[in-house]
Amino acid sequence: MRKTYIVPASNVRSFQHDLVKNNDVLMGVQVLPFEACCLESPLTSKQIEIHCFEAIQNNSFSLLELSLKSPSLIKDLINFRIDMKCYDLDLSCLPQTTQREKELYHAFSIIEPYIPSLSLPPGTIYYSLEGLSHAQIAFLSKSNALPLSPSQKSPSKLEAFEALNFRQELEGAMQYILSHHFDNAVIALFNYESVIPYVESCFQRYGVNVSYQNRLFDIVKHQMLAFIKQYTSQDLASTLALIESGALGLKKSYKLLRYIHHYKLHLNQLVEPFNYALDTKMSIVRDIIDLQKEIQDDAQILRDYLLEIQEMSLNDFIVYALNRLSELHPFDTKPLLRYVQEVYPFITRDSLPVVIKHIQALKDNPKQSLSIQVVDVNAIPSQIDGPLIILGLSSKAYPNLSSLSGVLDESYVKQIKGFPTLEARNKFNLELKRSIFRKADHLVLSFPHATYEGKALEGAYDAEVLLSQYNIKPKPWSIQEALNGLKPSLKLDPMLARALYERDGKIVGSVSSLELYVQDPLQHFIKHGLRLQEPPSYKLDERLFGTLNHSYFERSLNGKNTNLWDDYASYLPLDDATLSLIREINDEVLQFHHDNLSQAIQTTSFKPTYFETRFENESFFEGFEFNGVIDRIDVADDHLLIVDYKSSNHVLQSNEILLGHQLQLLTYALMARLRYNMPIQGVFYYSLNKNTITQNGPSYSKTKGISSSNPVTIQDLQKAHSYKGWFFDEPDDRFTQADFYTGLMLRKKDDAFYIFGKPYDIEKVKVYFVALYDYLKQQLLNGELDVNKFNLPLFDNYSFKQGGDEDES
């Protein structure tokens, strides 16, 4: 005799296992979900949705036109109509009073030919009272199907725990299962999809590598949707999104994207050769030339793809995209392939929104055979060996009953004669929810006190009532935490540090890299130990303008050609509306600084003599070989004046130098003094930005009353753009004006120039730097990576001024 068991789709497999376990398996016995058993149609459910969606779109509506373009609403209409059939209600029961109700009636009339009919297979029919909907049970009970006796049981053992939040609950449950050595256990979760990543990470901490989601298939879905979006949109944004998704199988897609973004290419330019960066010897342009060479293979793949799909029909393109994805992911496209085979004849541009929705909803969750089952609270197995642990029992998660909303809301449903009331449906659903407390002999309930954001949560009422019946109060989960409260010190093995940083017994690099080590040792290790560099930034930023402006002043003060924009032409975007404005503003700033520097040069006997002076493998400090470039060295009367151009305002500060944060300029001065065997007059920064001068308003005092402010003068502007640094020697007669150098003053009584306060002492700088570099060498080679372990400054109350003056202002 034929037997059919109708159970929720999520419980089909567990119910089959129960039948096998109880030896209740005979020929003709089948376990089916309601949809597979009772709905009769030549079309599958997804095909029905496509047909209904297209049929709706071919009709006109006024109030609901936009709403009915949503595939989700069409699916709701189909499911609602099936529920009506379960209740024995036809279309005549629908209200038709308002315009909205009339349009809904019209929509239901359109999809009616595609709605499956309801029937039962021959033989004895049994159905589960748990997990099926109110409408499904109403139909089965009227059709003389037999209800299965529910596995109602009061738990013989009940325990209750509480935790601060869900993650603590999960940790406590895991340790509880392991410490009690249960052979089998079931963990039931609310909001299963959103919390399952926490479960996976928790399992991994205990040595269980398990995945409840096939993330490779999620990538496949994302790439298929990117293909469809690019084909239908045919615009630059969707093409870039396709490249980014990895669907084309490009080896250096991120570099290709950087190139396209840099040159601001249009869609039609993507099918042309990528040869916009012309060969040049300029170092800053070399980066993008090298990039251009690297991306040629990927650029050809992109061109071939864009040209190949131009004449393809939508259906041909779907097959083409599937084939490309199958080559990339041979074992992870099966669910997608099965879906396309199911709906392929019905795919059109009109039905594409439904197809996209279906692809987004596809899942390929791997099957698990662990002794610890993790399930949704709505899919708890019918028979459980071991404890059932229900986590997250808050009033927010349970019972979580909701009324109908949207187009098919309760106010609409209330007007349908014969449709169950909200009270009846909620009563049914509440009883269904309560059944989770009668699923196991050993029941463990867990209550969170707060969300991750710290918002308080109240316990689920039914669960608290159950505990009161057993006279049980929740107790905290017993969680054994790892004793790692103290952060371990970051440190490399000294042998490894020497292997990374030393070459022939010396530390080779730039002074700026050592400054980075003092400020962020870990970042220094990444960049200069592991030699991992961030990808170069190919854009119009301070890096480009700093390099360009440095070159400009090197050439202009040396009498060379200063038309640098032509040299950088291959670096610049092809079509940038702001480029001409940027060039104009930058040229204006350069001209201002050129005039300002020219005037400054006229006020001193120091003349620019050396430009872009390179130091390579300089061993001025023991154990180091430094490489670097001094922007400008001026010479007068056998004295040197060191100038370093900066794109932003820089000021030498004693406290920063003592801490090792400003080493470059003074280190270059010491090396220049040794190379040229000349004393250092001073070291200075010159900022290449343009500062603004604010006109102060009138001021008031009790003694003077209101007094007007002095107008801004050219001297004020010069002071705002002066050389900022230190003097190491008296000016003597080497200067004729004091406005261009900080610290240089004019004594009115004898018209002599002097240094405000006292000059700095280059020998004191050398003494401190020798000690500092030796200390940093020891720290670096010992592998120290914790900035808090640096004992800086080395000397207390150390002054760089001549004569021991401690005033460093």
TrEMBL record:
Keywords: ATP-binding, DNA damage, DNA repair, DNA-binding, Helicase, Hydrolase, Nucleotide-binding. Pfam families: PDDEXK_1. Residues 510-694 form the PD-(D/E)XK endonuclease-like domain. Coiled coil: none annotated. InterPro entries: PDDEXK-like_dom_sf, PDDEXK_AddAB-type, Restrct_endonuc-II-like. The keyword DNA-binding applies. GO terms for biological process: DNA repair. GO terms for molecular function: ATP binding; DNA binding; helicase activity; hydrolase activity. This is PD-(D/E)XK endonuclease-like domain-containing protein. It comes from Erysipelothrix larvae.
